[in-house]
Amino acid sequence: MKSPHKTSGFNLLEVVVATLLFNLVVVFSIGLWATHARTLEKSRHRMVATFLAEQTMENALAEGFYGVKNGADTIAMKTTVHGTVTTVKYDYSVEVAETDDPNLKSIVVKVKWPDDDAQIREVRYETLLSSSSN
After folding, report:
1. How far apart are CA 91 and CA 52, in angstroms?
2. Do 123 and 53 touch, CB atoms closer than 8 A?
3. Full residue range of the structural domain in which residue 123 is found
4. Over the stretch 9-42, which tens digit does the pLDDT of each residue have?
5. What's the CA angle centered on 128, arms 123 and 130, to 5 degrees?
6. What predicted TM-score, i.e. pTM, was given to this entire model?
7. Is residue 100 part of a domain?
8. Domain for residue 3, yes or no?
9. 129: closest CA among 103, 110, 109, 111?
């Protein structure tokens, strides 16, 4: 004799296990997304600092051997991501130093900015400038 109840379909245990697995995947994905967003933000700050360091170094080199001098300044950059405006202050400096060779000067450009985790990050470029490059 056949049972009057339908035997095909999902039982309660299968539904509970499927729901648990789905929730685990969703929670993991949300955590991964948050990590990705933080990494993207840090990368954006580093990219701006690198650009600023490159431009500052190019300006220092354009001054030439006899015109290049020490200096420092701060620039505030505003970025908008998904409607949220963020302002980050980048401190940059140019350090010019004499070397053992009187025809060479050492130029160091540093760009520093505060990170989200309250650490100061830095991009640093160094080069030598020759008196014969003018």
Report:
1. 10
2. yes
3. 12-133
4. 678 888 899 999 999 999 998 888 888 888 888 8
5. 150
6. 0.72
7. yes
8. no
9. 103
